[in-house]
Every structure is written in C-alpha cells, then in structure tokens.
Design a protein that fits this description.
Helix content: 40-55%
Strand content: 5-15%
CATH topology of the largest domain: Rossmann fold
CATH architecture of the largest domain: 3-Layer(aba) Sandwich
Length: 314
C-alpha cells in the first residue's frame, strides 16, 4: 500500500470509519475520499455508481452499515437486512464497474453460528444456524463477505475481509438505540452514579460472554491487512479473550463510581451465548491489540463525560 493510492472510505463518520481515517492520515495518506450521507446516499444505486465512476479510487474501504443493539435488531430486522444488503451491493458492484483494484469489507463476528465452537475459527462460517436476535444483520454481512470473495474470484478485484469482535471506543454513539454494548454501559452507569440511583436494571442474565476490541486497534489491524494480505479469506480480528456481560457491567460500574445495585431482567434476551474469536491468523501477520479493556473503559468514560458537558443543560 502506497501513500499516493486514492482510497474511498465509505462510512467515514461512523466509529469504525473515523478510526480508520485517523490512522490513515497519521501514516501520511492524503488522498482519502469521503462523502457524507447528504452528499452521497449509499442506498441510491445510481448515485453510488456515478460517484465511483467519477472518482475511480484505487481502494474502497466499506465501513458503512446500519448498526444497532439487540433491541434495534429485533424491532427492525427487515431494515437491517435490506439497508445493509443495498449498501454492500451498490458499493461492491459499482466498484467493480469503476475498475477499483481493492475492496476492504468490514464484517462482524455475528456471522458465525449461535452454537459455534469456541473460540470461533474462520472455517466455522455457515456451519450452523445464526443467532435469531440479529439474524438480519448477520445475513447481510455474510452476503457482503461472499460477494467480496466472488468478485475477487470472478472479476479480479482484490478483496480483504476483516471480521472484528464487539467494538467500542472513540467516536461511538452513546444513544441507547445505536450504541455498542460497552458504550451503552458507560452511559448507564455514569448517569446512575451522578443521579445516586439505587439500582440499575440490566437486560438478560448477564451470563453471555463477549470479546471486546477498541476501535483504534481494529483500525491498526485493517491497515496491517492492507499491507500484508492479498487474498479475500476471512481474518478474525480481536484480542482472543472474552468476558461475561455481568463481569463487564460490574467493571464499568466500579469505574464509574456507582454505589447502587445491579438487577438482571431474565425475561430479556441474552443474545448469542458466547462470542470469542480464534485470532491466530491475524496474530500470525503481526497484530497485537495495544489498548487493554480497563484502559478502554477509562477512555470511553472520559469521552462520555466530555460529551455530556458539551450538551446544553435544561
């Protein structure tokens, strides 16, 4: 990867896109193409095709997606399936038509079966039923992954397929409807601590286990793959260690200084029982996370408090 190759970064205002852009610029990549939703609606096939034909980037990084937590995925599965399929189809096919040389498709660990052996290996894809609570999103991501691989095989457009675990960190939304797990917990416990709340009620039993990676570490992994990988095979990206949601909630509560009690509403779903990735492939090319979970929680809490301070009171 050379610094004069143009890169279209789709989804540059999202948490993942922002991190990738920060790291590209820190390495001296100046030719980064971005478009806001107002400038380019990725659900508009004609507009996407015309933009790519005009811009003709060397590389496209597809970090744009409709994302959300369990509640949003359960409430709007059709939108999660349709919008993600549409975005992927328009960008991947349009890139091929425009002569793009390389497609970087950002996936998700939710592509693996609900009852997947742990840790989850890349070859476990399509080996069993998906987790029902986010099946629409997962199906779209599987289709995008396969599309990237097939366009590599049939049209020669190089594909890269990083599959990250649960992400959090700089630039995440703290909106309860849109935030990732860890950022949602940070908001809840910081607010509860400040309000002196007696209890915080959590969804599920807390027994589900998740693996967490700071988004800046994902960005480092993506750029490493752009340097060292030339095949569209899946590369799991994570730290290779997981933690129960109960333990995570207790860790965040302690960091926030929350003194009340936690209650668990077992009538709500836990989601997939466990999601821990086998990260031996990405480690083999030199990737190691740099931000620990404790440090990441501290950074996210600092960011949320800054966001709160900047909001008008009243």
């Amino acid at each position: 990867m050379t610094n004069n190759q143009s890169i279209f970064l789709a989804g540059h205002r999202g948490m993942v896109g922002r991190a990738i852009e920060r790291h590209l610029r820190s390495l001296g990549h100046g030719d980064i193409l971005t478009r806001t939703r107002q400038e380019l609606d990725l659900l508009d096939q004609k507009a996407v095709f015309e933009y790519l034909q005009h811009a003709k980037p060397h590389t496209v990084i597809l970090a744009a997606a409709r994302v959300g937590g369990i509640e949003a995925n359960r409430a709007e599965p059709a939108q999660f399936l349709y919008e993600n399929l549409a975005i992927q189809n328009h960008i991947i096919h349009g890139s091929m038509l425009a002569g793009v040389k390389r497609m970087v498709f950002l996936g998700s660990s939710c592509i693996y079966p609900r009852e997947c052996p742990q840790p989850m290996k890349e070859e476990h894809l399509l080996s069993g039923p998906l987790e029902p609570t986010n099946e629409g999103y997962a199906l779209a991501k599987i289709a995008g992954l396969r599309m990237t691989q097939y366009y590599h095989k049939q049209y020669g457009m190089q594909g890269l397929c990083p599959m990250p675990c649960n992400l959090y960190g700089t630039g995440d939304s703290f909106d309860p409807q849109r935030s990732h797990v860890l950022s949602a917990l940070v908001r809840r416990f910081v607010d509860a601590a400040e309000a002196g709340a007696e209890k915080v009620v959590m969804w599920g039993t807390g027994s589900a286990k998740r693996e967490f990676l700071h988004v800046d570490d994902l960005a480092r992994a993506v750029l490493l793959m752009m340097e060292k990988v030339d095949s569209p095979e899946i590369f799991n990206v994570g730290c290779g260690e997981d933690i129960s949601i109960r333990e995570l909630a207790e860790k965040v509560a302690a960091a926030a200084g929350y003194q009340g009690r936690l209650e668990w509403d077992s009538s709500k779903p836990d989601g997939m029982p466990r999601k821990c990735l086998d990260v031996s492939k990405i480690k083999a090319i030199g990737f190691e996370p740099q931000i620990s979970l404790d440090e990441g929680i501290r950074l996210t809490m600092e960011e949320y408090r800054q966001v709160k301070q900047s909001q008008p009171q009243g």
